[in-house]
């Protein structure tokens, strides 16, 4: 077996790590002119507290962060023991509420009757409307609009997890190159991808794109019943979570010998991806990474077939700020981590995408995916 990553067991994040993140979030809120941050169950809460309550519960769980005040967690009484066991709990004051009581009244004292708060994008409308009813003069803005860079700059321990996730995705690609493609359905190869991601340490598989032939021209195609044939280009794009951090990589392979046009289109995407990765360095704007990739593809005459942004941030979620997109003037900062994934999509024919996760260092970009980007021929 090639490229098997060594088992990776990170040091767990400590209460001090979570306390520092919560303090940073409260300070960032103050800098943005907000009175604080309200965080519902989901990736923000996991990142800030280490607490992962059931995201599908109708009972209100809400983290309240405000500058100069202790972090507070409003939690249903029956969930309080679990919350108290979270890694970040020592830095939190728990405010529990029992069934039959009004959870918004319990929250009101922590939030205040006026002011402006960032609130997690994924907060249930039920809860936001409950807060509005109880605190009609308090205002709310989506957290990713108010503090888009809150989770964007990763610390060393986070980068270690992202690198491990990348290595496991690379090992998956090295193995999938050796399986049979011709005569099997896309869903069969997708199942192989999922098995490999788990075998190499992923606790969760989020997507396994196998876009063969014309299906590869649809960037949102996941995997279907189409039987892969000799002569097909096949876009592979897969990832999930390993120790809580994401992987996301794409390679495009060809079943049997490619023709001249397939080679050419693949080479254009490869060069666009290479040049965009090389452009990564502190201080350039996110949109510059997109422009570099897009210029290569446009100059080659395929600009209208590159139909998405060049990249997205990655961390405890697969898609998060910063986005490598025209109009995003945010400068790159060491510790940021994002995808560089240009593509060309020829409707009804085939697609090509090549994607690596890249982190910004003082000296430039460092890729967390390092498998060959040449056009690989599979059986
Ligand atoms: Zn072909
Ligand atoms: Zn991807
Ligand atoms: Zn991606």
Characterization of the model:
The chain has helices spanning 15-31, 43-49, 80-84, 103-111, 125-134, 143-146, 156-176, 186-199, 260-279, 286-299; strands spanning 36-39, 62-65, 72-76, 93-97, 115-119, 138-142, 204-212, 233-242, 245-246, 249-255, 311-313, 320-324, 337-340, 343-346, 350-353, 356-361, 364-367, 376-378. By secondary structure, the chain is of the alpha+beta class. It folds into 2 domains: 15-146, Creatinase/prolidase N-terminal domain (Creatine Amidinohydrolase, Chain A, domain 1), CATH 3.40.350.10; 156-378, Creatine Amidinohydrolase (Alpha-Beta Complex). A 6-stranded mixed β-sheet has the order 4-3-2-1-5-6. Strands 7, 8, 9, 10 and 18 form a 5-stranded mixed β-sheet that branches. A 3-stranded antiparallel β-sheet has the order 13-16-17. It is elongated and about 70 Å long. The mean pLDDT is 95. It binds zinc ion (3 copies). One zinc ion is lined by residues 237, 248, 250, 341, 355.
Name the assembly state.
single chain
Number of strands: 18
Count, helices: 10
Instruction: Name the strands of the widest sheet in spatial order.
Output: 4-3-2-1-5-6
Beta-strand content estimate: 15-25%
Q: Provide the residue-averaged pLDDT.
A: 95
Summarize the structure.
By secondary structure, this protein is of the alpha+beta class. The protein contains ten helices and 18 strands. The strands form five sheets. The protein has a six-stranded mixed β-sheet. Strands 7, 8, 9, 10 and 18 form a five-stranded mixed β-sheet that branches.
